[in-house]
């Protein structure tokens, strides 16, 4: 297929400076830059862990010397390293392959209970194991959403605040195989949190020193729990479940009104402290509350804008189209896992009606609003981002998205960006990662075939050949 048939643009040429010695050159393929325009190159040179040049083979020739490793792509594709922007690293490393949804052996997965890691060595081993598995999938960044003192007494041990220390240690020793962004947790996981405890945690987090190597490990903010999930009838919703209830908020309080006011107070406090907020919110009422509280906090005199902090609605299962547009206005991300929709669509229809299920997981509207960030939530689901893209595409088409080849190509570009360039924006790191651009870090993945030749549905069958992190090959098939 020619490049014009794949809906791509003219070849881009960039150079970070005069040619020097590259440690790595990839040439003779399709370098998918993942900028908004859909730029392509044919070759890329890496020097000092950074992208030094991109263009055609002649543009990188001057960077090659006898010490340079040259990879002949022979038509294969290069993408920016994948950024799984919601993934529980230490839990994944200690549970795999027992995912919560779609486990290869569901009975064995159901038997996984109690403590999975008990000490520092166990936490370290789990993170390193997850890192090796993720490197095989081209994943070079992830967000660990919710680790901290709130879970120091937690059942699995995977969310204990010592995990933060282990990440810091691995970042310092250069052993991390992904760049990690972590959201600190002061409430409890999937349970009701206490207002005063969370407010004290927010104050402590705001006063904490910055991490020494933020390109490898940073803690920009906090994880808050708004509500639980629709399937347990615990998402807080406008429309009723089949038993007449509307769900609830995960905040301690005497009434839902009091819980709502307390959750809004947590959000306003975190915002005023300049922290990024990742709020677990699945019901439309919870999403509305979060957006209203963020808007109110941002309107306070001298407060930072919501966009500058990059808050994240995590899951957003029942977010309405109007709410998705509001997120775009405010600069709030909707971080979604398409495998959840694939696994629970029929279940939701049974519980809330076919019309509610059809309007849920509105990935097409989220893409159009420019707020969609895709992630796996592993080990809730598997961490195969190729499957995540295929599932998102299937959901969008099934809920009315255009199925023309041109629309599908355009959408594939945007879905790939939702796993690369857009999560770099969520990390507030788009200036130095997320696209294949001169001067940015050399985090790259080589796929055996060009995704635009196979389409979203064919993507899960495309082998991952090579993963490059900071200019180093960390996986090779
Ligand atoms: Zn999660």
Q: What's the CATH class of the largest domain, please?
A: Alpha Beta
Low-confidence stretches: 1-7
CATH topology annotation of the largest domain: TIM Barrel
Strand content: 15-25%
Radius of gyration, rounded? 22 Å
Q: How many helical stretches?
A: 17
CATH superfamily (homologous) name of the largest domain:
Metal-dependent hydrolases
Ligands, ions, cofactors: zinc ion
Percentage of helical residues?
25-40%
| CATH architecture identity of the largest domain | Alpha-Beta Barrel
Structural class: alpha/beta
Number of strands: 19
Please give the oligomerization state of what you see: single chain
Q: Whole-number average pLDDT?
A: 95
| Lateral strand order in the biggest sheet | 9-10-11-12-13-14-15-16
Number of individual domains: 2
Q: Biggest sheet, open or closed, and with what strands and sense? A: 8 strands, parallel
Distance between the termini: 25 Å
| CA-based shape | globular
């Amino acid at each position: 297929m020619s490049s014009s048939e794949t809906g791509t643009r003219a070849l881009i040429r960039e150079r970070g400076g005069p040619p020097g010695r590259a440690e790595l050159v990839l040439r003779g393929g399709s370098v998918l830059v993942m900028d908004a325009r859909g730029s392509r190159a044919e070759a890329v040179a890496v020097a000092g862990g950074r992208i030094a040049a991109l263009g055609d083979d002649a543009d990188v020739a001057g960077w090659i010397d006898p010490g340079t490793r040259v990879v002949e792509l022979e038509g294969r594709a290069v993408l920016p390293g994948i950024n799984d922007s919601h993934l529980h690293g230490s839990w994944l490393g200690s549970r795999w392959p027992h995912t919560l949804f779609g486990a290869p052996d569901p009975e064995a997965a159901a038997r996984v209970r109690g403590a999975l890691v008990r000490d520092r060595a166990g936490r370290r081993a789990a993170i390193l194991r997850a890192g090796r598995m993720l490197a095989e999938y081209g994943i070079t960044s992830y967000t660990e959403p919710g680790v901290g003192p709130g879970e120091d007494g937690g059942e699995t041990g995977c969310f204990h605040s010592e995990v933060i220390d282990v990440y810091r240690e691995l970042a310092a020793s250069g052993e991390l195989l992904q760049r990690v962004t972590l959201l600190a947790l002061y409430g409890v996981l999937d349970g009701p949190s206490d207002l005063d405890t969370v407010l004290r945690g927010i104050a402590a987090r705001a006063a904490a020193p910055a991490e020494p190597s933020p390109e490898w490990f940073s803690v920009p903010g906090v994880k808050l729990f708004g509500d639980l999930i629709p399937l347990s009838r615990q998402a807080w919703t406008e429309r009723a479940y089949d038993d007449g209830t509307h769900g609830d908020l995960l905040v301690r309080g005497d009434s839902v009104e009091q819980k709502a006011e307390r959750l809004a107070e947590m959000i306003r406090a975190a915002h005023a402290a300049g922290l990024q907020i990742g709020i677990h919110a699945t019901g439309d009422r919870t999403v509305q509350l979060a957006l209203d509280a963020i808007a109110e906090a941002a309107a306070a005199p001298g407060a930072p804008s919501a966009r500058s902090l990059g808050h994240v609605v995590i899951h957003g299962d029942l977010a309405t189209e109007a709410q998705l547009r509001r997120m775009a206005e405010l600069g709030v991300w909707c971080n979604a896992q398409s495998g959840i929709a694939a696994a629970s669509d029929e279940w939701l229809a049974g519980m809330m009606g076919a019309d509610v299920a059809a309007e849920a997981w509105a990935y097409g509207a989220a893409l159009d609003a420019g707020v969609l960030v895709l992630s796996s939530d592993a080990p809730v689901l598997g961490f195969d981002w190729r499957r995540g893209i295929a599932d998102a595409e299937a959901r969008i088409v099934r809920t009315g998205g255009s199925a023309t080849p041109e629309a599908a190509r355009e959408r594939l570009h945007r879905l790939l960006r939702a796993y690369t360039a857009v999560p770099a924006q969520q990390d507030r790191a788009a200036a130095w990662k997320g696209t294949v651009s001169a001067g940015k870090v050399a985090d790259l993945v080589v796929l055996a075939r060009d995704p635009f030749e196979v389409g979203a549905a064919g993507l899960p069958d495309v082998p991952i050949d090579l993963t490059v992190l900071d200019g180093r090959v960390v996986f090779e098939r």
